[in-house]
Amino acid sequence: LSGINAVFYYSTSFFQGILGSPVLGTVMVSLVNVIATYVALKLMDTSSRRVLILVSSAGMAVSAGIIVFILHLADVAYNWLALLAVMSFVSFFEIGLGPIPWLIVAEMFDSKYVATAMSMACIANWTCNFLVGLLFPYVEQALGKYSFAPFIVVCVATFVFSYYLLPETQGKSIDEVSKTV
Question: What's the rounded Cα separation, in Å, for the pair 114 and 34?
Fold first, then answer.
């Protein structure tokens, strides 16, 4: 529900009027996605899972806020800033909210429950993916320039939840993690 699927599915329409070729914007989003995924690979083993989630959700909220702000300016001179905000949104997703939930699920459950927990996480993920993909055009039509506002709310809620309730799992046994919960 963070909004990343809206960016991936509808990026060509985002860049309509911002770039001469909206397809170029979609290609740039994909390139940034690949580069940020590589950075995430390096960070996941050296950084705290919880910190990556916090940085990711905060960065996505700020990036989405910038997108909403730029949409209000409706000034061609700031198109490059909108492009950077979308790229930033994707980058922040890839360093935390993209990969870390899959690691945390596997690290929070005893091995006999991991398959069930991962299956439930996958169902939740694909359900949210489907809902964002299906409903974003209606949200965009209803909220207009505020179409990223719900994603800001979700990212801020994720930050607050993670700050107060998410245990650190990196380098800890399941017993150690369960004692912190």
Answer: 28
Q: What SS3 class is residue 19? A: strand
CA–CA gap between residue 122 and residue 117 (Å, rounded): 9
Q: CA 164 from chain center: how many Å?
A: 19
- Write the single-letter amino acid at 19: L
User: How many helices and strands in the chain, by DSSP H and E?
Assistant: 8, 0
CB contact at 8 A, 89 and 67: yes
CA pair distance 142, 9, nearest whole angstrom: 18
Structure tokens at 147: 């179409």
Per the DSSP assignment, residues forming a β-bridge with 19 are 16
**Token pair of 64 as six digits:** 């989405």
What burial letters (b/e) apply to 106-135, b meaning 16+ CB within 10 Å?
ebbbeeeeeeeeeeeeeeeeeeeeeebeee
Cβ-contact 79, 18 below 8 angstroms: yes
**Structure confidence by residue, pLDDT tens digits, 75-103:** 666 677 888 899 999 999 999 999 988 88
pTM of the full structure: 0.89
